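Now for a chain:

_____
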Amino acid sequence: MLLMTAVLAAFVSSCVENNKIDNTYKRTVLVYIAADNNLSNVAQNNIYSMTSSIRNENDNANLVAFVDRVDNAPALLYIHNGVRDTLVKYEELDTTDPQVLHDVIDYVVEKFPSESYGLVLWSHGTGWLPTSQLHFVAPNMNYAQLRDGQTAYLSAADGVRDPFSADMVADTKAFAWENRQGETPKYSCMDLDDLVGAIPDDVFDFIAFDACYMGCVEVIYALRHKADYIISSCYEVVNSGFPYHIITRDLLNGSLMKICREFHTYYNSLSGWERMAGISLVKTDELDSLARCFGKIVAEYGEDIPKLDENGVQCFDRFSNHVFYDLEDLADQLNIKKEYLMELRLQLERVVPYKVSTAYIFPGDREQIKVDKYCGMSVYIPFEKYETSGLNAEFRATEWSIATGYGQ
C-alpha cells in the first residue's frame, strides 16, 4: 500500500491574513512536495522551474506548493508572477502523515475558492506495496531497506550500496519517505488506505503522481472517487520528475493530455538511462466497469493466473520479486476467450484515453527493461511463491482485489 505514517503538524505563522480570499478562481493547483529525503535538491530545482514559468497572471488560476525539504522549515508557498510568497510556515512535521496532507488540502481549498482543483503528489512512491513487504519484494534495492526504518548502511562487501553515495546509479523517484536521522536511517511512510482517507471525495479534477510506480490499478482504483482523472507512471520516474519548465502552465490550464505528451517528449529526447518515460491518463468513472470486466476473467481463469510464467508477462520493476505487470498483457498471456479479451481492451481504451512509453526502462543500463506492452496500468500477480511472505494477503485487502475477486 502507498507509503506514509503519522505525526500531527501545526500551523505556526502566516504571511497572509486568515480571511478567505474573495475571488473565485477558475482553477487552483496544489503541489504537495514531500522532499525531506534525498530528493531535497531536486525539489528546489522544480520549485524554481515552476516560479520561472509563471511571469504573468495565469488565466485566473493559482499555483500553491507545500514544500518540506531537508534542513528547511516546511512551508506553503503561493507561486505567481515569477515570485513565491509564503502563505504558511510550519513547525517540524512529518509530511508522510495523512493528517498533514488532509490539513494542507483543507487550507488551500478554503483560501482559494475555485471552480476546480488539481493535486500533484510529488515524492517517492512504491505503488500499493505495504512498508512491511519492501524487504521481501526488493532485497536488491537499497531504498527498500531504508524506507521501512531498518539499517541498511552496509559495506560494499555486504553487497549493499549507500543510496546517498556517488556510485549509486539510476537515481529515480519512488512516494513519500522522511530523511534519515543520525547514523541510523529513520523513515516514515503512508499506507494506501491512509492516502485515500486524507484526500476528500469529489474535490479534484485531477491527481498527478510525480513519483514512481503509482500507475498500478490497485492505487488508481482506490482513488477513483478522489479525482476525475489520474496521471501516473507504471514504472520508475527519473528523479528530476515532471519537466515543470514546460508543463506548469498546462497544469494550471488543466491540459492533461498535453502534460503526458510533454513529459514523454522531454525524456525521450534525452540520452543514456535517462531516456525513459512511461505515463498514462486514467478516466476514473470508467474504473468500476473495468473491475466488472476483469472480474469476469477472474471468475473463469483465476486459478490459472498464479501459475503463469512470470517471465512471460510484461514487467515494469527491477525488484527481485516482481510486483508490477502490464494489466492487458496479463490477460493476453492467459489465452482467455477472444470476446473476454476484446471486452477488456475496449474498456481499457475508455479508462485510459492516453498512454505512452519509451522503448526501454533504463536503456543501456545493466538492468534495462524492454517495454513491448504498455496499456497504461500495471497489476499485481499473486504468484503462489508469495503466499508465505504475506504479500498475497496484503494484496487481498486492496479494494481492487475485493471488487474483482482477484487473488481471493
Remarks:
- Residues 1-285+352-374 form one domain.
- The chain is about 30% helix and 20% strand.
